[in-house]
Amino acid sequence: MGFLLLHFALLLLFICPCQAQGEEVTDEPAMNCQPHSHFEECASPCQGTCPFPEPNEYCITVCVEGCVCDQGYVMSAGVCIPKENCGCSYRGRYYKPGQRFWEGPGCGRLCKCDTTLGMVVCKKASCSPKEKCSVVEGIRACRPLAHVHPRETLTA
Predict the structure, then answer these.
(1) Signal sequence: where (predicted)?
(2) Nearest-CA neighbor of 113 among 131, 127, 94?
(3) Domain map of the chain by residue range?
């Protein structure tokens, strides 16, 4: 991170005075930007992304030429998408908008990626009497008691 900030600070020493005098810094024409983005001569190198829609506060004074997502859009896997289409990051995992999942031993909490709030929201819950909490291929869920899976791990 320190190297990048030093690199951008050095670029600013040369780019900003030229831009302030109205000179174009590059000899190439403006970039062709992808859908839902546009070219800016002085943009933050830390654009909003799905997990972090707000720009990084340490990048505000740094500026670079490039394509940036239009208002209301953020970068996700190299493409600008509407903010409301972003999922949620929770405990090192990514969940799609509206995706529900069980958390905790014994499936004690049912969680949901709430795009309105921009975060995962969990509430107390439990499996029905005809279900048992188990983990299959890394996914914790309430499954029917009759359900048998070779990779199943029961949780208390």
Answers:
(1) 1-20
(2) 94
(3) 30-83, 88-154
